[in-house]
Amino acid sequence: MLSYSIRRLLGAIPTLLILIALAFFMIRVAPGGPFDAERALLPEIEANLRAAYHLDEPLYQQFLRYIGGLLHGDFGPSFQYRDYTVTELIMAGFPVSLRLGGGAMILALLFGISAGSIAALRQNTRTDYSVMSASMTGISVPNFVMAPILILIFAVYLGWLPAGGLGEGSPRNLILPIISLALPQIAYISRLMRGSMIEVLRSDFIRTAKAQGLPPHKILVRHALKPALLPVVSYLGPATAAIITGSVVIEQIFSLPGLGRFFVQGALNRDYTLVMGVVVFYGVLIIAFNLLVDLAYAWLDPKVKYS
């Protein structure tokens, strides 16, 4: 497994380079620049600023310079947040995004696996139809629509939870964002879990366990759960990407100072280095998480071998 992990990490390097190159050149194709909002500056001062940030160099030279900085762990200075480097901004926003995304993932797994298992055990009953109907609703309604609805109900009408902001770091401020981010993933995971569990419950080894007189809860936990989780585990890679991209919108709606908010503000201000830093950071996270998902197969299914 160690050699497989090393090969996967080496194979991820070209993927990351392509991601960096696409993001680097696409953001520079977009109209505008990082100093367009500062029209009061004299042309000489703006030229000095561009020279200070090496924006007067050819694009290929800027790209090579940026790659060289990444190899030394340097994401460069921010063009808009003049007193901060991109690394400092990422380290400031990542804990908020981690709490938001981690909470959403845990919530999605707990409720999605539970709902899907219950629906499979009670196939073609009202419970099954209710779970699947709720799942279809969760898939159909995007989180940027669900978030304002939750704010309207629980913050405006009922006044139970804050409508936005991080406050003093209270968990109450993250309840609505986490739920908004987790609802579509709960729907997907519950549908995957239901289909997989139904297939596993019809397997020969489950019939053997029933013939031995094992109670249903032991059959479910000891024999059916692990193989039924395989499709869910394979979905965790795309789910992580969906939660990361969804958090960009959710953090804007709830005014949370996470990486998503920095990314949006950086894109609006043409803060090249900030946008690139967030893209590269998220890309590394997704690649690492996909590797962990692949390795989890060996634990869930002993038949899976990595040569």
Describe the structure in brief:
By secondary structure, the protein is an all-alpha fold.
Give an overview in words.
The longest helix is centred in the middle third of the chain and has 36 residues, at 86-121. The mean pLDDT is 81. 75% of the residues lie in helices and 0% in strands. The chain has 307 residues and is mainly α. The protein has 12 helices and no strands. It has a domain at 92-253: MetI-like fold. α8 runs antiparallel to α9 (216-228). The protein has helices at residues 2-29, 43-52, 59-71, 86-121, 126-140, 143-157, 172-201, 204-211, 216-228, 230-253, 259-268, 272-300.
Mean pLDDT: 81
Number of strands: 0
Find the CATH topology of the domain at 92-253.
Answer: MetI-like fold
Identify low-pLDDT runs. none
* Second-tier CATH architecture of the domain at 92-253: Orthogonal Bundle
Main beta sheet: none
What is the assembly state of the chains in this entry?
Answer: single chain
Just give the CATH class of the domain at 92-253: Mainly Alpha
Counted by DSSP, the helix tally is 12
Q: Classify the helix fraction into a percent range.
A: over 70%
- Structural shape: globular
Order of helices and strands: HHHHHHHHHHHH
